[in-house]
Task: structure prediction
Amino acid sequence: MQITRMEPVKGRGRKFRIYLNDEPAFLLYASDIAEYKLAGGQELAPDTLGEIYSAVLLRRAKLRCMYILKTMDKTEGQLRRKLKEEEYPDPVIDGALDFIKSFNYVNDLRYSMNYMESRQTSKSRQQITAELRNRGVSPEVIEQAWENSGTAGDENAIRHWIEKKKFNPETCSEEEKGKFIAFLQRKGFLYRDIKKTLT
Result:
């Protein structure tokens, strides 16, 4: 592998984007470049590249994951996306996530069940499922979480919106009822569940 380019990265402090064989490979600090005596046009020995991956990039990726998880639980997909944004190579990302998962610091099933429990009274199953998918949780894990969570159906969440909106199905006009039903449907509630709860 040849180092074909080393360019400063704006807004990333003293970091440089390292290109190997004209492809962006990873980011290194100026101190890393000096330590490994890297230069443009240099052939990078496999041993040196391996050491950069394991001793520098993998260590930093693990620490980055730990820092992110210190303030808030995340899914594996969210962590992977964050590391990808910070230009860690895929093998390094895989290694960092394997490390984090080995200590159960990230667990998509646990995350999904907690997410469902905290939102089941205000959001529809469909909306919660879409939000979890957007966070990188697989459909299989989401389905397993629904099966394990023991959460109630959407009726409780619909009742939450009835109370919040101070909607009275017995005294409202047909027009008001239609607007309220449309509002609930936009939030992902099924018509059959809305009708069942309103009657």
